[in-house]
Amino acid sequence: QVQFVESGGGLVQPGGSLRLSCAASGIIFKLYNMAWYRQTPPGKQRELVAVVTSRGSTDLVDSVQGRFTIYRDNDKNTVYLQMNSLKPEDTAVYYCNVPGGLANGYWGQGTQVTVSS
């Protein structure tokens, strides 16, 4: 079955950096577009933050343009989100998934990012 395992979150001061990782299994990873979402507070609709296509093209939401980078390593079945110049409003639980989410509604456990002084 499909599994996404997110990691790399933590507590960071404003202006700091984090790199999130998402290890995927149960899919032919290299064939899929992948995305990072974030959610705050719990239960609110997840916000699409960044997408990387199977060919490596990327797109990011305006609020993170110039600060975040999404990329993938198909050999490791992993997608990354490099986050720089973090702001308190970036505080959220971050999830990876295919764009639009899986048809079965599966989401991983996410990784908490807290930006605070």
Descriptors:
single chain, 117 residues, mainly beta, six-stranded mixed β-sheet, four-stranded antiparallel β-sheet, globular
Given helix and strand content, the structural type is mainly beta
Kindly estimate the percentage of residues that lie in beta strands according to DSSP.
over 45%
For the biggest β-sheet, the strand order reads 2-10-9-4-5-6
The radius of gyration computed from the alpha-carbon positions, rounded to a whole number of angstroms, is: 13 Å
Number of strands: 10
Describe this structure in words.
The structure is a single chain. This protein has 117 residues and is mostly beta strands. The protein has no helices and 10 strands. It has a 6-stranded mixed beta sheet with strand order 2-10-9-4-5-6, with no helix packed on it. Strand 4 (34-39) and strand 5 form a beta hairpin. The protein is globular. The model has no long low-confidence stretch (mean pLDDT 96).
